[in-house]
Amino acid sequence: MMERFPWLTAIILLPLVASMLIPFLPDKEGKQVRWYALGVGIADFFLMCYAFWNHYDASSATFQLVEKYAWVPQLGLNWAVSVDGVSVPLVLLAGLVTTLSMFAAWQVDRKPRLFYFLMLLLYSAQIAVFVAQDILLLFIAWEVELIPVYLLVSIWGGKNRRYAATKFLLYTAAASIFILVAGLAMAFYGDNITFDMVELGLKNYPLGLELLLYAGLLVAFGVKLAIFPMHTWLPDAHGEASAPVSMILAGVLLKMGGYGLIRLNMEMLPDAHVRFAPILAMLGVINIIYGALNSFAQKNMKRRLAFSSISHMGFVLLGIASYTDLGISGAMLQMISHGLIAAVLFFLAGVTYDRTHTMAMNEMGNIGQAMPKVFALFTVGSMASLALPGMSGFVSELAVFVGVTTSDIYSSPFRILTVLLAAVGLILTPVYLLSMLRQVFYNPGAAPACVLGGASNSKNGDDEAVCFGTSCVLPGNAVYNDAKPRELFIAACFFVLIIGIGVYPKLATQIYDAKTVAVNAQMRQSYTQVAQKNSQFYAKKVLAPSIAESKVAPVLGVIE
């Protein structure tokens, strides 16, 4: 009986149905609403943990927990959901980050019913994106997810919140059109009209059409992944969004782009991926260096962290383009690791804002004396972000580096150049992160925005009310309290996983290894077929194919 239970449907619908009940809750001040929303988030997270623990086989690369029901038969739209090694860790990541972000939004008292309604709606939409197996259903979930994010930024954001929210909506909505157009083109090609993503992946598309489809989807997912030059919405959105929303933006929404590249571009369009792989590697290097250099120029703490996210997403592109099991595994681990690290850093940025009521680092100066626990937590988060050994970021980025270095597809000059350029960005990361720590917490030379020491701490300057997703507070009322138990608990939830994965990476990799090996085997098989037809497919001097049949055969055995 339990085997037939629609686990994925229940996981998707629980937050959605629960959000519909919020208007009927007897709560005027919003205190019961936040407990209700947090309880729903925890219940849904434990539900997915139970379902995957008992009904998901990590050793299989096939789709599991398959559910398929006719939804709108006239359009051929089905409620088709399932999970595999690529989607399971991202579903768990979405559940954890969204639940903790609702706990982090404890002080929100402006329209609390609407806030938590949107958070639960976003929760449901995120899960639907990662488990959808009908491309129309994927598109619908992708679009639904945009609405709550837009409202959460535009209502509970900073001074330029409407500009940032509108820019986010225009970028992502315009890019998502490519998903719809590509999906319809794939569905209507050939004699078999279908929106099922497995069946779409089995179709033989002409190379020209496949390249166009790949390019369109690359734009759609590239905007979400913040690939240069389609990244400009991200710093603006992070700079204006409240901390709980930034946690979801960095921790989950960016990963939708990486998920789409693996699920649609790699799995469904392998021949086109062979042609685009070197381009992805180059874009990855550009992202790493560009994001790191731009971080130096940011005086706003959250904008600096946003550009840091752009830099870290470059490693995902490198891993996807590596043609190695280790490289793709590193790309997956980088998405998981960055989701945890970025979420906790943006949370701690929000904690700092709640005390200082500013994001300008030059206005904080020397607040580490008043908030030693916050400083300690921020230091640990920064160490994780700069890939300190023993942290999850070190393992993921090392896996990508080794994966690219050991790739037998690319020539030695290309691999050496790629690794060296990526290493430049890696070297810059600790510089701008440690510089941020110094400016914010220990910078005696800066003029602090507030007078430290006592409950009557007051900011210099005008007394304009500050509203940043929390209650409106006059700057003169800023009080420098250290981290509270709730805040320590949220940070600890992230750090336990970050350190746990860093010490024992198999904790995460065993969930998806079978799937990533199968995906890479498919890529190498496609490359072999292309190389047999054109032995000089890649550029003669920079990218020279050198794969032997014997090296492909053992890997292919995994998916047979």
Tell me what you see in this structure.
- By secondary structure, this protein is mainly alpha-helical.
- The chain folds into two domains: 1-268, no CATH class; 273-516, no CATH class.
- 67% of the residues lie in helices and 3% in strands.
- The chain has 19 helices and two strands.
- It has helices at residues 7-20, 31-55, 87-104, 112-131, 135-155, 161-188, 197-202, 207-225, 233-240, 243-268, 270-296, 301-320, 325-356, 372-385, 392-405, 412-441, 485-503, 506-533, 549-556, and strands at residues 64-72, 77-83.
- It has a two-stranded antiparallel ribbon with strand order 1-2.
- It is globular.
- The two termini are 30 Å apart.
- The model is unreliable at 445-475 and 539-560 (pLDDT under 50).
Protein topology:
Blueprint: H1 7-20, H2 31-55, E1 64-72, E2 77-83, H3 87-104, H4 112-131, H5 135-155, H6 161-188, H7 197-202, H8 207-225, H9 233-240, H10 243-268, H11 270-296, H12 301-320, H13 325-356, H14 372-385, H15 392-405, H16 412-441, H17 485-503, H18 506-533, H19 549-556
Antiparallel strand pairs: 1-2
Helix pairs in contact: 1-2, 1-4, 2-3, 2-4, 3-4, 3-10, 3-13, 4-5, 5-6, 6-8, 6-9, 8-10, 8-11, 9-12, 10-12, 10-13, 11-12, 11-16, 11-18, 12-13, 12-15, 12-16, 13-14, 13-15, 13-17, 13-18, 14-16, 14-17, 15-17, 18-19
